[in-house]
Write a structure and sequence with these properties.
This protein has helices spanning 3-12, 15-35, 40-56, 67-80, 87-94, 98-109, 112-118, 126-142, 144-153, 164-178, 180-198, 202-212, 215-224, 232-258, 267-280, 304-309, 419-427, 433-438, 448-457, 471-491, and strands at 61-62, 65-66, 286-290, 314-320, 323-328, 340-343, 349-353, 359-363, 378-384, 389-393, 400-403, 516-521, 524-529. It is an alpha+beta fold and 556 residues long. The strands form 4 sheets. It has a 5-stranded antiparallel sheet with strand order 3-9-10-7-8. It has a 4-stranded antiparallel sheet with strand order 4-5-6-11, covered by helices on one side. The chain binds zinc ion.
């Protein structure tokens, strides 16, 4: 590519895209572009700060990339997305980890040992003395304000007798309270770390979520304050990102508490995905569509979805049961676009990327995959004109994308159905009550976990033929379904139900203490209380095949 073209492209590319396409060189070029019109003296100072940071962090890695990439993104985000034109803030952003990670190097290289000795360093512990000396070097080189900003975002050596994460959060909160500009640096730093979390899995993810989650409300409160020097629109953008971060941390930590993988996305998870689209993806013009996965996009041929959607925007996101669909805009004012149907399948998630690289997810709880995510698990992608994207991430490839889905095949939403409708739909025929609950054409939105939870709450045996249900049983089950759905939505998913943890061999009923039993009902793995849900239960295990199988229709 010609130099000018590359520069023009880099100037508008999202930071995560520059990182993955051009790496450190691309980020350096973007940084140079951002400051090209600034005063000569400011540019030289920022360049010196970048040089120093690159030297100090030369051997550091953040995940698999050079650490300086993180520093460049934090600085560029502040200039380009936060609209800040202040060389000292940018110098501090570039050096924000220099003292925390390399105090001794910085102190030694800058002649800081003398300063430390003269500054009462003798009574400080080694780490703290080095930090003071390093900050003095920065003050001499870049001015006292840069040193002060770096000092605020530097974590001190921790006291051994207290929880480190707690000390970290206290330090951040205290420092940011008094220094509005440090809040700006921390917000960009936090955003970059939030993006990084998406690419982290396993125990480390849970550990980081535990560390950062309590910081979100603190940071949100500080950003919202009138003396935080950012435009209202920028503050709003950051607040929205912090909301997403809180949701994601909650999902990750819920997953940790649950401890193992369970079930598929149920109604509350799908609602999370729908809300994510409604909050973050509407109104963004579609400039590219990857519909090459002909299995996920069946019956459409490759390019069909691209042709139908390019140039439009998503204008509304709806859900009934576990089925989502989006309305799209017309290509001019006069017509409406096609309906885009989305089904998450067994383990799909919706991933929406903002122009600045912030990634938010909804759907199947994240953190489940033991291995790093692969690009090919994005089964369908919309690319937006602003550089962000929306992807259906689905490792197991059981999600579906379809134009103009047949929504008439779905029953009323389980969260909205009335008592009378429920009674009529649930009691007709002779099928097992659990199988009926799972039949999406009757009532949409109850999956395997929610069905077990609701039947247990209502003390209804799962294999009861629906013809045997009395009116009071049906009404009790209706109330249980409603309350289970509301609780799962509030707590972050079907896995939070009271009996879910007891769906395992050897567990006892959380209510009466009797043994939990397992069998197959409606074709699905089912657990129930041996005492309170005893009648009509099939003998566990092998006789299960005699139970009526649920009609497990594809939704699309
Ligand atoms: Zn019980």
């Amino acid at each position: 590519m010609e130099g000018d073209d590359r520069e023009r492209l880099l100037a508008t590319m999202p930071l995560h895209a520059i990182t993955s396409t051009y790496g450190e060189a691309g980020l350096r070029d973007r940084f140079a572009f951002e400051i090209a019109s600034w005063a000569e003296a400011d540019r030289r100072r920022m360049q010196r700060a970048l040089d120093l940071a690159a030297r100090l962090h030369a051997d550091d890695r953040r995940d698999r990339e050079p650490y300086v990439n993180h520093l460049l993104r934090v600085a560029i985000r502040i200039i380009s997305y936060y609209g800040v034109h202040d060389a000292e803030v940018i110098c501090a952003a570039l050096l924000h980890d220099a003292v925390e990670d390399h105090a001794a190097d910085l102190a030694a290289g800058g002649g800081g040992a003398d300063l430390a000795a003269g500054g009462g360093g003798a009574e400080l512990t080694g780490g703290r003395a080095d930090q003071q000396a390093a900050l003095a070097v920065l003050a001499a080189e870049f001015g006292p304000r840069v040193a002060e900003l770096v000092g605020v975002v530097t974590n001190p050596p921790y006291a051994r007798d207290r929880d480190e994460d707690e000390q970290y959060r206290e330090h951040v909160a205290d420092g940011l309270r008094d220094n509005p500009w440090a809040r700006v640096i921390k917000a960009s730093d936090f955003t970059d770390n939030g993006v990084g979390l998406i690419h982290t899995t396993g125990p480390r993810l849970h550990r980081l979520a535990g560390k950062y989650a309590p910081l979100v409300p603190v940071l949100a409160d500080l950003i919202a304050r009138p003396d935080t020097p950012l435009d209202a629109a920028v503050k709003e953008h950051i607040m929205a990102q912090l909301d997403r971060a809180a949701e994601r941390f909650a999902a990750v930590r819920g997953d940790a508490a649950r401890g193992r993988s369970l079930g598929m996305p149920e109604l509350p998870e799908v609602e999370t995905a729908r809300r994510l689209i409604a909050d973050l993806a509407l109104g963004r013009r579609i400039t590219g569509v990857d519909d090459a996965d002909t299995f996920v996009c069946r019956p459409h041929s490759p390019g069909e979805l691209r042709a139908a959607l390019t140039g439009r925007t998503l204008t509304a996101a709806h859900r009934r049961g576990k089925t989502m669909w989006c309305e799209t805009s017309g290509l001019d004012d006069s017509d409406l676009g096609p309906i885009l149907g989305i089904h998450l399948g067994m383990s799909g998630r919706i991933v929406v990327t903002a122009p600045d690289g912030w990634v938010a997810e909804g759907g199947d709880p994240p953190g489940r995959d033991a291995e790093p995510r692969k690009a090919e698990w994005d089964r369908f992608t919309l690319e937006f004109a602003d550089g962000g994207r929306l992807a259906l991430f689905d490792k197991r490839r059981l999600g579906r994308i379809v134009l103009n889905p047949d929504l008439d095949r779905l029953g009323p939403d389980a969260a909205e159905v009335t008592t009378a409708e429920f009674r009529a739909l649930i009691t007709t025929g002779t099928i097992a009550v659990k199988a009926r609950l799972l039949d999406q054409s009757k009532i949409a939105g109850v999956g395997n976990l929610l069905a077990d939870e609701a039947l247990w709450q209502a003390k209804v045996p799962p294999a009861t033929p629906v013809s045997r249900l009395q009116r009071k049983d049906a009404d009790r089950l209706y109330r249980a379904v409603r309350s289970v759905l509301a609780s799962a939505a509030a707590k972050g998913g079907a896995h939070t139900g009271d009996v879910i943890a007891a769906r395992r061999p050897g567990a006892s009923c959380p209510r009466c203490g009797a043994e939990m039993v397992h069998g197959t009902v409606g074709g699905r793995s089912t657990w129930w209380c041996s005492r309170e849900q005893a009648a009509w239960s099939p003998a566990p295990a092998d006789s299960a095949s005699r139970q009526p199988a649920a009609r497990r229709k594809g939704i699309f």
